[in-house]
Amino acid sequence: MKLVLSHETALSHLRAHRERGRDRLAPARIRTLEDCACSLREIETFSLPFLVDNEHTLHVLVPSLAKEQRSKTHTCHVLTGSIPSGAFWRIGNSVYVASPELLFVEMASKLSLIELVLFGLELCGTYTLRSDGQIGFCNCPAATTKQLLSSFVKRAKGMRGAAKASQALRWVVDGSNSPMESSLMLYLCLPVRLGGYAFRLPDLNPTTQLGKKASMVLDYESIRCDLHWIKERVAVEYNSTQEHLNPRAAAKDARRANTLGYTDINLITVTPHMIVDHTQFDGVAKQLGKALGVRMDSRKLLYSKARRELRALLFPWLIARN
């Protein structure tokens, strides 16, 4: 008998794994779920520390509705059909957990489309939200890549959530370093019908080599920009110094701005106040559009219901304070 953890339980495990700075685990080859634990009594036989006095519902996978059970402390989810390769990680003796790729598909049934895109950016980025559900994040190795997610979603065709996951991948990009970078990119790049400004997707934190002069003056050879349209040499940076929340982050922001002064990269800076004031953010969008050679018509700048809802979803911690 084996135990296969899924959905919110797998999500908490993944975030805790990333919080500890652990690298991606090797995939486990599971052919069938027929012998999976489904009753609370069977689950308790595994005597795992996180199964004891757990205040959250435990989510596990089973192969059929006939084995679907639930109690006050556990819920079974059905996974039918063939199991795509790369669906599980082994985390203990006969204990497995949904891989980041399977989890992305599973959470499609729990999250809105935009929330799912944010989750994809987290998985493919160098940060993770806290495993205990509290506000905050920490930096860590990426859990997966967009290529791995795309490949898995294709193998999972027909699985519940796969179609929505495929749609969400249109706006997932590797390399985000924080929730703010992910939110800022989506605010700028989601289509107008979803509340965005419809810019094409940038690279996130790509390494840009500095010229000889800049390298000699600054004593380092490369720099990373938050959002970077490499071909057009345009970058958008989020600058939190206005809030004075983190002196180290403020110094990093200033150093990076000074560095870009030695390059021919067109830098556009976004502050928290610009995000809170939608008319100021329209000014950012116009500036970015001009730099990228994109016409910003009235439709893209309309402060619609979709834009209000998107802004509230992407920046709740800023909107709530203002």
Protein architecture, described:
The chain is of the alpha/beta class. The protein has two domains: 3-171, no CATH class; 179-319, no CATH class. Helix content is 38%, strand content 16%. The chain is built from 14 helices and 14 strands. It has helices at 7-19, 40-44, 100-106, 113-123, 146-155, 162-168, 179-189, 212-218, 247-260, 272-276, 278-292, 298-301, 305-314, 316-319, and strands at 3-5, 27-28, 58-62, 74-78, 88-92, 95-98, 127-129, 137-139, 203-204, 207-209, 222-224, 227-229, 234-238, 266-270. The strands form five sheets. The chain has a four-stranded mixed β-sheet with strand order 1-6-5-2. A four-stranded mixed β-sheet has the order 9-12-13-14, sandwiched between helices. The chain has a two-stranded parallel sheet with strand order 3-4. Helix 3 packs across helix 5 (146-155) and helix 4 crosses helix 6 (162-168). The chain is elongated. The N and C termini lie far apart (53 Å). The model has no long low-confidence stretch (mean pLDDT 87).
Q: TL;DR of this structure?
A:
The protein is of the alpha/beta class. It folds into 2 domains: 3-171, no CATH class; 179-319, no CATH class.
β content, as a range? 15-25%
Strand element count: 14
Q: What overall form do the CA principal axes indicate?
A: elongated
Query: How many domains make up the 3D coordinates?
Result: 2
Poorly predicted tracts of residues: none
Say what oligomer this is: single chain
Question: What structural keywords apply?
Answer:
322 residues, alpha/beta, 2 domains, 4-stranded mixed sheet, 14 helices, 16% strand
